[in-house]
Amino acid sequence: MTAAPRVVVHPSKQILADAAAARLVGAIVDAQAERGVAHVALTGGSMGSAIIASLAAVPGRLAIDPMRLHLWWGDERYLPAGDADRNDTQNDEAGLASFGIPAEHVHRVAGPDASESPEASALAYGEAIRKHGQGSWDVVLFGVGPDGHVASLFPHHPAQRITDAIAVAVHDSPKPPPDRVSLTFECFERSHQVWFLVSGADKAEAVAAALAPGTDRWDVPAAGPRGSDATLWLVDADAASGIA
Question: Considering the entire predicted model, what is its pTM?
Fold first, then answer.
């Protein structure tokens, strides 16, 4: 069973980021209380960094035990460590280091400086997830592209069709850089909560399409992932403007 999508509209991008950060604190604390350790898959993009910045400013985050928190990324650009276009670099710059999480609990995708290929990085990332006993995600955060893509799973891209894998190499991405590593739809199916964080009028069409009944994830990947406990679309007013 999966939870039907629920839409929560916020007046602005900043209010959305602040509210999502407060919500994330509660979700992590609850997961740690119920399951001992919390596993969260982060997202890149402007909203991914905005929620990290807001989380760094939330006093309630002190309720999180950083020693029992593991952070991952739903996808990563296959670029060297520290590259400004990497999702983890952008999240670091937004304040991730201030959370006090042990470095070995912040799981990064290897780039070309540390692996021989995106395939090797995908395999290693999948093995890391297995090693840490990650049977299910507590919270998965997604940004959504104007084309409806999530992570690095793009409309009509063969990476969508990969099964029996936790992570996959993505080549010929329609959005630069062309080489990436992404978790798969099969991996995302094991999520307690799935949150879509979307801001801006340029995303309104994608939001509306993803939420329309019967939309195929092959056409609009954001229509696919759902959580077993909650599927939340946390959007600002501009991104919600196309919803009937």
Answer: 0.96
